[in-house]
Amino acid sequence: MVPPLALDIDGTLTTASGRIDARVFELLPDWDAPIVFATGKSFPYPVALAHFLGRAETVIAENGGVVHVDGETTVLGDPSAPRAVVEAFRERGGDPIWGPEDTVNRWRETEVAVSLDADESLLRAAAAGTDDVEVVDTGYAYHVKSTGVSKGRALERVADALGLDSGAFVAVGDSENDASTFAVAGESYAVANADETARDAADTVVSASYMDGTAGVLADLRKRSE
Q: What pLDDT digit, counting tens, does each position of 130-166 carry?
């Protein structure tokens, strides 16, 4: 039997230009084990992906701040402290570029995403005096989030709801926010475009990038299960 999967989306199921790779629609609908889509994006994005793949809407959004499994949504992060940090950033003259009405943040419930074009040092300075907030650079945004949530903790929660051990999962990702997932999964792969934190945390760094790397992992897993 193929193993259950914990899959990041951006940089992992996409092309280098950020588009969902068409092979997702060939390889994932008939994967005969649970798939958890674990992303830094807000809740509607992974739900929509699961829906259009015909998969159960088993998702981790906002870097672990929101979890949906077996039809139940749980909000794990507290947005008040991250929002206060972004407000302090603004008061110091910083511009997050993305506002609350931009789609990147419009449906975000537990954290705030700030554009990579923003002043990173000023943003981190605004967060420095707050023990319960951290800034995570995913390569796509600066995520201002609660320290108490992570994709890894969320995967443990999802696995428990599914009656599985998190160690049964194979995780694939590309960013520092995937390191916590790699830590609790039984087997982990970083695609070749992964950042240093993800590469160091993964059991294996594959030679191919983006969906090319993920597709290779899936092919190997399927072959191994035969």
A: 889 999 999 999 999 999 999 999 999 999 999 999 9
pLDDT digits (tens, 9 = 90+) for 72-90: 999 999 999 999 999 999 9
200 is catalytic: no
Average pLDDT over residues 50-79: 97
50 with 57: CB under 8 angstroms? yes
215 close to 223: Cβ distance less than 8 angstroms: no
What are 29's two structure tokens? 């609908």
Task: Give the SS3 label for residue 75.
Answer: strand
Alpha helices, DSSP H, located in 111-226: 120-128, 151-161, 179-184, 196-201, 210-225
Q: Which H/E stretch holds residue 49?
A: helix 44-53
d(CA 18, CA 185): 25
Residue of 8, 10, 137, 178 with catalytic role: 8
What angle do helix axes 80-91 and 120-128 make, rounded to 10 degrees? 120
CA angle 46, 80, 128 (to 5 degrees): 100
